Amino acid sequence: MKAITGQAPPSRIKLKYLQAVAVLDETHSLAKAADRLNLTRAALSKTLAGLEDLLGVKLYERTASGMVPTTFGRTLARHARLILGNLRSAEDELRDLMNEHRESLAVGALFIAMPQLLPQAIALLAKSDPRCVITVRESGSFGLAAGLHDGTFDLIVGRLVPEYFRSAVNLEPLFEEDLLVICRSGHPLAKATDLRWRDVADYPWLLPPKESPISHAIQSQFLSDGAQGPKVIVEAFSIPLALGMLQSCDAMTVLPSRLAYELRDKGEVSILSLRSPPLPAPMGVAWRKDYPLSPLASAFIAALRTCAASTQ
After folding, report:
1. Alpha-carbon span 239 to 249, nearest angstrom
2. Per-residue confidence of the chain (312 residues) as pLDDT tens digits?
3. How far apart are CA 54 and CA 18, in angstroms?
4. In this structure, how many other beta carbons lie within 10 angstroms of the beta carbon of residue 254?
5. 254 vs 73, 177, 179, 183, 218, CA distance in Å?
6. Beta-carbon count within 10 A of 18 CB
7. How many beta carbons lie within 10 A of that of residue 308, not counting itself?
8. How far is CA 81 from CA 215, 290, 297, 299, in A?
9. Phi/psi at 172 (nearest 5 deg)?
10. How far apart are CA 189 and CA 199, in angstroms?
11. How far apart are alpha carbons 53 and 58 in whole angstroms?
């Protein structure tokens, strides 16, 4: 009889299985996945059959429209992406340490965190951790949550919309703020009082993509005021584009109050007298509970807390 050690047995799922599942989840095609993995279709099919035999479940339904994952297949693919993402992060971090003795950190950030909060936190961090590589990638709220879950980001800074996150994530609010509507200084409506949302529907607007919670909030304001929304909408996560549009075509956009007031004080924009829509969630930082924070990640979170608190 084998002694009970209290330790879980080693996993029988090999790396090649995880790679096959992750690529299939992207392509939904045996032929495309085989090409991506430099395998023949027969070899990949044999690998999948071996994995299904090993687990005792069916992972995919082979249909005329492609490989359709079962519930088991979707679950395994989610874990495969996370594990492979962690391995890539480990390789990158080890390479940085071997080459230049630098720690690395992958940060996902909402576009509105770019002009103020992130630069301030990075500047503070640079005083104590001068040898590091911080990679910052911009995305929307849903993309940030997805990137955190699959291991693309070590941590994210953005709106902590609860329904975007699973339970295995730490969510730490940093601050809440209002959303303000801005236009260029000298805009025809810059000094108007008691504006209604229907009054600004004829001007071009730059908004986050339609799946963004902020975009939903703005559209709701128009509808509640009896307007169908702006006639011209440009969807983008880009403050430079927004400011360029404000100057070139009397456009309007929305920004968090901190950034809007800073730009107003510089004389770059005016703040319109429109009732602000409620924001869907506070700005904050999030990281996975099952992925221990590196010293650099912990220091960066501490810097974010300090910078957020100093401006409240």
Report:
1. 15
2. 334 334 434 567 778 888 888 888 888 888 888 888 888 888 888 888 888 888 888 888 888 777 888 888 888 888 888 888 777 777 776 776 666 656 889 999 988 888 889 999 999 998 886 778 899 998 888 888 888 988 889 999 988 888 888 778 899 999 888 889 999 999 999 989 889 999 999 999 998 887 777 888 888 889 888 888 888 889 887 888 888 889 888 999 998 888 899 899 999 899 998 877 777 788 899 999 878 888 899 999 999 999 998 866
3. 13
4. 25
5. 41, 13, 6, 9, 9
6. 21
7. 21
8. 29, 14, 21, 27
9. -120, 105
10. 9
11. 8
Token pair listed for 229 = 């929304």
Token pair for 238: 């880009």
Question: Per the confidence metrics, is the pTM higher than 0.85?
Answer: no
